[in-house]
Amino acid sequence: SQLLLTQARSPEVTTFGMAQKQSVWATLPPITCGALTTATAMYPVDVVRALKMSAASDGKKAGTMTLLKDFHARHGMIGFVSQGVIPEMVRATYMRVLKFFLFPITHRALFGKETAQGSVSTKAIAAAVASLPEGFTIQPIEVSKIALQLDKENKYKNNASAVIKDIIKTRGWTGLFIGYTGIQYRQTSWTAAYFATMDSFTALSKTVVPNDWKMTQNLLGGFAAGMFGAIFNTPGDVIRSSQQKQIMASPPVYHAFSVGHCANGVSAFFAMGAKIMAEKGVGGLYSGFGFKALHLGGSGALLAMLIPMFKGMMGVK
């Protein structure tokens, strides 16, 4: 019975004296539990972040309370936990699962060693590469989520499918990738900065937190790494938000896929960034940074604490 107990808890069990390596898929359940818990806890905060980012992209300086009152008037109290909740839960959980699952695999594939033996640069590179499928695949969900959270006339009745169908009908399937350059930049920059610095920030937290407070150390390290990532992440999100709102506010134009259309999307991203800087200076690219940093810091903290916790509960290395 002691042998069976050891085999159940150990990531590398022994059968007839031969070591069996833990399957890479064993990490999916604890990562998914941590990501879903984080998405649930952070959703109301994400609504406020979306409102502030939208107001900033419109050039408005309304306070948080004013934005909350306006949102309440349109959607009621239930809106804070239901408006766009399905696409947000799917998007947030999926992208976090993907990044935490692919990061160590990518690091081993690129550098032939575990992340614990990696440097800041190898972790940043591996994280950036691992984020590429994440940014591409969450884009349609991101568009539907933003459209629902900012649906002032309740046109889509809190229905993500209605958003996607309307966009495909009026703009073509390429319409689902409006603002993709900003989305990919946002995901890649934060993921690279987070994974590259999380271990360093966690180690730093050990200088002020007792050694046996592991969860607190992970929490603080993840919070600091998440906020650090926001420094690089925010400009892309501000530009992307402004770009999407500008295009969505204009009469829909149907675009078929072409290399030229993709190139136009990239150039439009930089053109919007230049426009914001010309009108508001560099600070314009960091509109809503304080709240966004807290949001990403909170997400990073929960992920850094919960995923190791669930791994321990499930006996996964």
Summarize the entry for a quick read.
The protein is an all-alpha fold and 317 residues long. It has helices at 2-9, 28-57, 64-75, 79-82, 85-111, 120-130, 132-149, 160-171, 180-205, 214-249, 259-280, 289-314; strands spanning 13-15, 18-20.
Beta-strand portion reads under 5%
Structural class by sheet pairing and helices: mainly alpha
Largest sheet: 2 strands, antiparallel
What order do the SSEs take from the amino end to the carboxyl end, as H and E? HEEHHHHHHHHHHH
Low-pLDDT segments, ≥5 res: 1-19
Q: What level of helicity do the residues show?
A: over 70%
The Cα radius of gyration reads 21 Å
The global form is globular
Question: How does this model look, in words?
Answer:
- By secondary structure, the chain is mainly alpha-helical.
- Helices cover 73% and strands 2% of the residues.
- The chain has helices at 2-9, 28-57, 64-75, 79-82, 85-111, 120-130, 132-149, 160-171, 180-205, 214-249, 259-280, 289-314, and strands spanning 13-15, 18-20.
- Strands 1-2 form a two-stranded antiparallel sheet.
- Helix 7 (132-149) crosses helix 8 (160-171).
- The longest helix has 36 residues, at 214-249.
- Mean pLDDT is 84; it is low at 1-19.
What is the fold's blueprint, element by element?
Elements lengths: L1 H8 L3 E3 L2 E3 L7 H30 L6 H12 L3 H4 L2 H27 L8 H11 L1 H18 L10 H12 L8 H26 L8 H36 L9 H22 L8 H26 L3
Antiparallel strand pairs: 1-2
List keywords for this structure.
single chain; 317 residues; mainly alpha; two-stranded antiparallel ribbon; 12 helices; 2 strands; 73% helix; globular; disordered N terminus
